[in-house]
Structures are given as C-alpha cells and as structure tokens.
Amino acid sequence: MLRYWLNNTLELVPTPPALMVNPSISKPAAILMELTAGYKIFFHGYNELPDYYSTPINIPAATASKFQLTLSDLSTSPEVKDLQVSQRHCRLTSEGNLQYTPVYSHHLCFMECRMKVYLRVCNCTPYYFRRLGPDPICNPAGMNCLFKNLEEIEALGISSCHGCDTNCDEYVFTIDSVETTDWFLGTNVEWDLIKYPEIRYKRSLIFSGSNLIVQFGGATGLLLGASVLSLAEIVFFVTLRFCWCVFGKRQVD
C-alpha cells in the first residue's frame, strides 16, 4: 500500500479474487468472533468507502450482534460506458480525475473537496488525510481553526463539491434488523443477506446514433418514398456531379 500511495497508481495493488458464494445457500453470511473491543461498522459497496457523512453503527464491547441486510445494485451497460462523462452523468472507478487518489469514487471526490476547503480556510489539512507535496499538516492551532470554522467549512464543502459525479456502478446495503445481546466471550458480529437480490437496476442506452439513422431512414421512406441512399445520391448529383460536369467540360474544351 505504501508503494501505491507514493507512486499514485492503482496498478501496484493486486486485485484479489472475487468471493464466490454457493447459490444453493439461502442466506449468505459472515461472522467475526472474539474481537477484543467494541467497534464501528459500515456497510458499503466494494468500489466505495465510508466518508464524513456516513453514519456508523456503534457496537459496544462484550456483545454479540447480528445484522440482516438487503442489497440493491445499479450497474451500467457497456454502451453507456462508451459515452462521455458529461452525457451519462456518472464516473467509472478507472476514470480518475482526482489529484489525491488515482481512482474515482463519489466519496473520494467529496474528501478531496473538503481537503481543498481546509487548505483555503486554515491553510492546513488534518494528519489523517493524504497530502501531496508541501501541504502543511495541521498542528494543534490548525485543528482548533478547523473546529472553530466548522460551519463555514461545511457550507463551502457543500457548495464546491456539487461537481462530484455519482458512481456508475452502485451497491446499497439496507439494514433490516439488528439484534444485540451481551456476550462474555469477547465481541462477535455476524451479518447475512435475507435473500439474494431479485431486482437489478441498470443504466442502458435507449437511443443511440445508429437508432437515429434507422429512425431517420424510416421516416424518409414513409414520407418521401426515398431512403438514406437516395438522399446521398441526390447530394452527389447536386454537388460533385454538377461541379464535374461544369468544370470538367471546361478543361476538356
């Protein structure tokens, strides 16, 4: 990970194999046992991470908790991915336009916006943020500045981060139920999906350039009794053929 941060490239981080789940299992589940302390837990997709506005679930120590989740996902078709970002209004993970991270996510974009606001208001960034070049780290006076100007920073962050596009592929986990009981053998946490997702949302291209040509050709054939090829021939005879007949004969004469 250190090489990844220093070189600012995702290629240095190997991609782990995907976790395969047997579809015959009615409720895919995972469990962590005998943790030595309490914890905060976030549920999010693999291409996203928690940010300042994410609300964690606080679980105290010496408890056993069970979460039941439902999953909804939004994927993007290859035809939509071929469009410009300004056309589809979303970004892929590989379409990084950020200064501090080589990959893109909606939350990473917001983090970078807040870092720039910190530098603008207090001329420093907290120690737990990544920095590039000479970005100063906040000392106690700088952290006090951030705390005193928190409302101004929040207002500037919201106004300056409106250009952060959403992720093209999104995964949203909804917590349906939480059960927490006292447990004397450390801290345990278990989560499972109530059922496999039954509905998948997808961004698809409804009307493409080829559809436009087909529709235009059909309308032309219906109204004028001609095809796109006929129109191309008319343009040819009116322009190139006409010029050749006029100027070509002059050169022969």
TrEMBL record:
Keywords: Ion channel, Ion transport, Membrane, Sodium, Sodium channel, Sodium transport, Transmembrane, Transmembrane helix, Transport. It holds the Pfam family ASC. The chain crosses the membrane at residues 230-247. InterPro entries: ENaC. Its main location: membrane. It is found in: Membrane. It is a multi-pass membrane protein. One of its GO terms (molecular function) is ligand-gated sodium channel activity. GO terms for cellular component: plasma membrane. PANTHER family: AMILORIDE-SENSITIVE SODIUM CHANNEL-RELATED, PICKPOCKET 25-RELATED. Belongs to the amiloride-sensitive sodium channel (TC 1.A.6) family. This is Sodium channel protein Nach. The lineage of its organism: Eukaryota, Metazoa, Ecdysozoa, Arthropoda, Hexapoda.
